[in-house]
Amino acid sequence: MKAIKIIYWISTILVLAMMLYSAYGTFFIHSPEGDKVMAQIQIPMYLMKMLAVGKVLGAIAMVIPGYPRIKEWAYAGYFFDLAGATFCFIATGSPVGEWAMMAFFVVLVLVSYFTYHKLKAPKL
Amino acid sequence: MKATKIIYWVSTILVIVVMLFTAVQTFAHLDHMEAFAKQIQFPGYMFVMLSIAKVLGVIALLIPGYPGVKEWVYAGFTFDLVGAIVLFAGSALSFPVALWTPMLVGLLMLIISYITYHKILKATQTQKQ
To answer: Where are the domains positioned within chain B?
Structure first.
């Protein structure tokens, strides 16, 4: 159980850090590299902003104890966001190096999800 | 319980109709769908991705059981519809009511379907115990 707890916290913190950094970047960081990536995957800025709000709300839901139903939705949202992002990169023909990181986070969010259920086993 | 079941099925079928509506248009490569994607600055592949997700979601709703998967489907459909509404509301473009209606009705039906789904799920779980 202790190992599961450690795995849960590491994966969850990494996922939250990634999500919050991405949300922060959408609103506050404007770099030529970032613009290049956005132009490549052709995602309009307003969509990124909407996703950034979703990411912050998801992070709040995951950090606050309890509310299993809302956490379930947060995990679903994070999974769709990351899997969708991976799809975007692949669909626009980006090299593996650019989306490997995204795919890694898809795995990480699933690790967090399954360890979360092992620890809490909440009833839906 | 019978009324709940009827409301569940009517709302769920309407949700499925709304979801398959865009998916079919995407896969049929209709011109107005492509023009619409361009208008809202969506890359073409985005609708393909969403349409695949919608079809998978519909399948998951129709197969009995798997409450964990169904929960994610309801989450995904909500994000999709709320996202679409935010997109319409936040866009500088003005969209006709005809485009708004299916989304608003879809979201309302989704909420009703979700609530009745959980009522039925809870009832069957207590029955088993």
So the answer is: 2-128
